[in-house]
Amino acid sequence: MGIKDELPHDIADRVIEHRNRFRRFFIGKMMELLPTVITYVHNGKATSINFLKLEVALRHGYNVVIGKNKLGHLTVLGHVRKSDTFEIMEMEKEITKDDITFTIPERLIPNEMNEIKLDDDCSTGNFVILKNKPISYTNDYEILEHYADELTELVVSRFSIIMQAKISTFFIGDQSNSETINQIVASLWNGSPYIKTSKYFDPKQHIHTIENQHLASMFTEIKREYQNRISEMINALGFKALGVDKESGVSHTEAVGNQSFTAGNGNVYLQGREPIKRLEKRYGIKITPIFNDEVISESFIYEIAKEGGLNDT
Description:
The protein has one domain: Upper collar protein gp10 (connector protein) (Upper collar protein gp10 (connector protein) fold), CATH 2.40.500. Helix content is 43%, strand content 12%. The strands form three sheets. The protein has a four-stranded antiparallel β-sheet with strand order 4-3-2-5, covered by helices on one side. α1 packs antiparallel against α3. The radius of gyration is 28 Å and the shape is elongated.
């Protein structure tokens, strides 16, 4: 449709829409990304597990049941109740067939179902239960909501500075709602290369410009703070990011200074998926969950490093 002309009273609405649109697409893009962060590698033996479906369910807080169906194929059988909170008294509760909400056709549901446990060295049972986190006090999407709010305000501030740069010129007329002034403002705002006025309009008398030499530095600071918030968020989700932010060069030691915190957060997610390894003892099928965040993290690190300069030392 292109960019439409904007009248002065449309500008406030544009800021609101800009804020809401950014928040929507940022949360949406992160929700699309999260299920792809952890991938699964196996020893070549065929499975019917839809790993993307598995990760989407885990990220939404479902405890996912993986096991063999009636045909003997290893697949996602269903899920048990959501694990939004930590209930210590139920950690060792034995899950039965009646506890499972199945997502496979009824004809494929096994007649008998028992969880594969370490108690008997995984010698019995036909399913395991995976969790997004072994102990859950927080929800991943609440983390996204929190940082999306902060990032949205920074984006709006940056957008506001751009608008301020465009309207740092003041027009003086006989009345504040002068139609001539309104037309001039609208024409300039929409990028018109020329303006038609009457002979009574004197640019020297009716136009005053206020110089703002700090806009460029404000852009830099907002960009740096934006990247800081991104780093905090992806660290909390187990991604790698720079451990320090400063204007001068960042050494390698400083860049990985928060690696233990990030690795700890990442291990929380991997431990929730640890029961899938019991399938190797039970069926000889080795499936290993790993973080596939190298490309994602490197892109974040590169963007952050551009702000302060990243040294190789």
